TrEMBL record:
Stored HAMAP family: DapL_aminotrans_1 (MF_01642)
Binding site for pyridoxal 5'-phosphate: Y72, A108, K109, Y132, N187, Y218, S246, F247, S248, R257, N292
Gene3D superfamilies: Aspartate Aminotransferase, domain 1, Type I PLP-dependent aspartate aminotransferase-like (Major domain)
Purpose of the protein: Involved in the synthesis of meso-diaminopimelate (m-DAP or DL-DAP), required for both lysine and peptidoglycan biosynthesis. Catalyzes the direct conversion of tetrahydrodipicolinate to LL-diaminopimelate.
Cofactors named for this entry: pyridoxal 5'-phosphate
Family stated for the protein in its record: Belongs to the class-I pyridoxal-phosphate-dependent aminotransferase family. LL-diaminopimelate aminotransferase subfamily.
EC number(s) stated in the UniProt entry for this protein: 2.6.1.83
Name the record gives this protein: LL-diaminopimelate aminotransferase
Pfam family name, one: Aminotran_1_2
Positions bound to substrate: Y15, G42, K109, Y132, N187, N292, R388
Organism from which the protein derives: Formimonas warabiya
Keywords: Aminotransferase, Pyridoxal phosphate, Transferase
InterPro entries per the UniProt record, alphabetical: Aminotransferase_I/II_large, DapL/ALD1, PyrdxlP-dep_Trfase, PyrdxlP-dep_Trfase_major, PyrdxlP-dep_Trfase_small
UniProt pathway annotation: Amino-acid biosynthesis; L-lysine biosynthesis via DAP pathway; LL-2,6-diaminopimelate from (S)-tetrahydrodipicolinate (aminotransferase route): step 1/1
Length: 409
């Protein structure tokens, strides 16, 4: 008899965005005429930048010729891409990295979900509440979180409430934790931390020998000066942090798949006797065993993001989405909503009117305005009473959605 992994049975029935898709599909069946606008999942709508398309075409041609054909690539990613990542995304911010500290992958979701494998089962993890569900669910699957309690929270997770009172910035844990998931600019609240605020986390991690798993997938959307783009801009972070980055939202790669993770060699976890182990060779070991790398044409496409034309084109795309963010933010404010985020992030976090539950607001918005968003409660108990809209729609749909919210709700 095969035994099921009972940790899977502790998970909500479906992944948040699959549940939303299910409800939308059902609504469409019942209302085939409805002109639905999706501002739910953070999926991009602008096409790939032309520089990327041209580079990928060339790479596909190379793969079709005997002289230039390539089979398996290095699991960690090609040096030509890793060099460009370091030179463009890190050196200008004073962050030096070795080539073998960068691991190219097919997604930040993949990496944030998988990285927990390197930690022992009895580690205590801390997450913001609300939180991107992948950090929690992947640890539930691994059996690290204990049972679910009445608040629909896991007994062994330390939740760090992000509330209006604390400016949606997670407080330091009251008890010692081993693994800390931080995401800035934040998904779902769209908020950021200053260097001083982030430094408190680095100091906490150093004092407690904890590790920060820093998700920076939205760093390209930071508009304000002085907001850190990478945790490695903070002194001492190389000893305690791993950082996840992505081409998905920055360069339209949600359907193309390319991301990378930085694992500095100094980041260490300990065995039961207190002996230190660098996570970098362990992550390499994990990746070489379970992953065969991102396809060559996709890596060539990602490298083209860093060409002068690529940089110009992605700036235009990012500006386009951030103008959507402004339209949503200001439109909602003018309509009397209380809104957060949307300044350094492509997400707008709003308070549901009249203390309405977030799934209730989801249904109302879908039925009355045919607009789809993401219920805050899907990001954890702390998200109840809030709702997320993304700036990744088309301009036309974004304007239409706000107009409908203004007039129909
Ligand atoms: C979101 O909507 O939160 C994102 O699409 C999640 C993701 O990138 O996986």
């Amino acid at each position: 008899m095969a035994h099921v992994n009972e940790d899977y049975l502790k998970l909500p029935g479906s992944y948040l965005f699959s549940e939303i898709a299910r409800r939308v599909t059902q609504f469409k069946i019942e209302n085939p005429q409805a002109d639905i606008i999706k501002l739910g999942i953070g999926d991009v709508t602008r096409p790939l930048p032309q520089a990327v398309v041209e580079a990928m075409k060339g790479a596909v041609e190379e793969m079709g010729r005997q002289e230039t054909f390539r089979g398996y690539g290095p699991e960690q990613g090609y040096d030509f891409l890793i060099k460009k990542i370091i030179e463009n995304d890190f050196l200008p911010r004073g962050v030096e990295l070795a080539l073998d500290e960068v691991f190219v992958s097919d997604g930040a979701k993949t990496d944030t979900g998988n990285f927990q494998e390197l930690f022992a089962q009895d580690n205590i993890l801390a997450v913001s509440d609300p939180v991107y569900p992948v950090y929690v669910d992947s640890n539930v699957m691994a059996g690290r979180t204990g049972p679910v309690n009445q608040n629909k929270q896991f007994d062994k997770i330390v939740y760090l409430p992000c509330t209006e009172e604390n400016g949606m910035k997670p407080p330091l844990p009251q008890t010692r934790v081993d693994m800390i998931y931080l995401c800035f600019p934040n998904n779902p609240t769209g908020m950021t931390l200053s260097k001083e605020e982030l430094k408190k986390w680095v100091d906490y991690a150093k004092e407690n020998r904890s590790i920060i798993l820093f998700d920076a997938a939205y760093e390209a959307f930071i508009r304000e000066e002085g907001v850190p783009h990478s945790i490695f801009e903070i002194e001492g972070a190389r000893e305690v942090a791993v950082e996840f980055r992505s081409f998905s939202k920055t360069a339209g790669f949600t359907g193309t798949r390319c991301a990378y993770t930085i694992v500095p060699k100094e980041v260490k976890a300990y065995d039961a006797k207190g002996k230190a182990y660098s996570l970098n060779p362990l992550w390499l070991r994990r990746q070489t065993t379970k992953f065969n790398g991102v396809s060559y044409p996709v890596q060539v496409g990602a490298a083209a993001v860093f060409s002068p034309e690529g940089q110009k084109q992605i700036k235009e795309i990012i500006n386009y989405y951030m103008e959507n963010a402004r339209i949503i933010r200001e439109g909602l404010k003018n309509a009397g909503y209380q809104v957060f985020g949307g300044i350094n992030a492509p997400y707008i976090w709003l308070k549901t009117p009249g203390n309405m539950g977030s799934w209730e607001f989801f249904d109302k918005l879908m039925k009355e305005a045919n607009v789809i968003g993401t219920p805050g409660a899907g990001f954890g108990a702390g998200g109840e009473g809030y709702f997320r809209l993304t700036a990744f729609g088309t301009r036309e749909n974004t304007e239409k959605a706000i107009e409908r919210i203004r007039t129909k709700l």
